[in-house]
Amino acid sequence: MKVLVTYLSQTGNTEMVARAIYDSIDRTKEIHPFQEVTSVEGYGLVFVGFPVYGNSVPPKIQPFLKGLPKHLPVAFFHTHAALRGSELARTGIENALSLASHARVLGTFTCQGKVRPAVIESLKDKPEHKKWCEEAMTSYGHPDAADLADAREFAAGILAKATTLKG
Ligand SMILES: Cc1cc2nc3c(=O)[nH]c(=O)nc-3n(C[C@H](O)[C@H](O)[C@H](O)COP(=O)(O)O)c2cc1C
Questions:
Q1: Exposed, middle or buried: residue 63 (CB in 10 Å: 0-12, 13-18, 19+)?
Q2: What's the gap in Å between 52 CA and the centre of ligand 1?
Q3: In a mutational test of the pocket of ligand 1, which residue from 5, 35, 53 has the highest number of ligand atoms less than 8 Å from its CB?
Q4: pLDDT tens digits, residue range 56-109?
Q5: Separation between Cα atoms, residue 88 and residue 70, nearest integer Å
Q6: Helix (H, G, I), strand (E, B) or coil at 23
Q7: Ligand 1 neighbourhood includes 11 CB (under 6 angstroms)
Q8: Which domains does the chain have, with CATH numbers?
């Protein structure tokens, strides 16, 4: 089973997670930014990663998610400045799941990714962004070693699931 890890990353956080996942895979594998992927034909499993922007999947990568072949085993990972597990962090993955509802999603992974202090500074006085700014202030230093270890563990679980499917 050939595995593809692909991602969108503007400031490097999601790429760090992508590389941790890629390094932990003991199969034939490739890693590419999603812009370089012209076809996913021939892969038995595809990991797709992206950051959360504006509480959603970045528009750039949405067509890629929508275009994933029907029933292709996929797994999503995303980074966000909001706290892991918080409602603000969940929206991105929920959007991804609805965009790719036709694919066979084996699992999802999220962790925090640091945001530039200037972004928080520019939003912190706006009441609608107060909660996000409070959460985003805890994103410094992420993804950290523990996040990357979790990502590797996630990848191992997804590979085990995909192998069972191949049966
Ligand atoms: C313009 C902009 C919008 C963002 N919007 C959100 C958001 O809605 N929710 C969130 O939790 N983080 C948000 N973030 C933080 C990023 O999702 C986070 O830093 C992520 O790890 C960036 O990933 P990257 O380095 O792979 O690009 C935003 C960051 C920027 C610069």
A1: exposed
A2: 5
A3: 53
A4: 999 999 999 999 999 899 999 999 999 999 998 888 889 989 999 999 999 999
A5: 28
A6: helix
A7: yes
A8: 3-166 (3.40.50.360)
What pLDDT was estimated at residue 166? Answer: 66
Beta pairing class for 73-80 and 104-112: parallel
Confidence band for 141, pLDDT divided at 50, 70 and 90: very high
- d(CA 2, CA 109) in angstroms, rounded, equals 20
Higher pLDDT, 157 or 96: 157
Cα separation, 16 vs 151, whole angstroms: 10
Given ligand 1 and candidates 35, 52, 79, 124, which is best to mutate, with the most ligand atoms within 8 Å of its CB?
52
pLDDT at 136 over 70: yes
Residue closest to 48 by CA, chosen among 74, 70, 15, 17: 74
Nearest ligand 1 atom to the CA of 53 is 5
Confirm or reject: Cβ of 42 under 6 Å from ligand 1: no
Instruction: Give the DSSP letter of residue 167.
Output: -
* Closest atom of ligand 1 relative to the 119 alpha carbon: 31
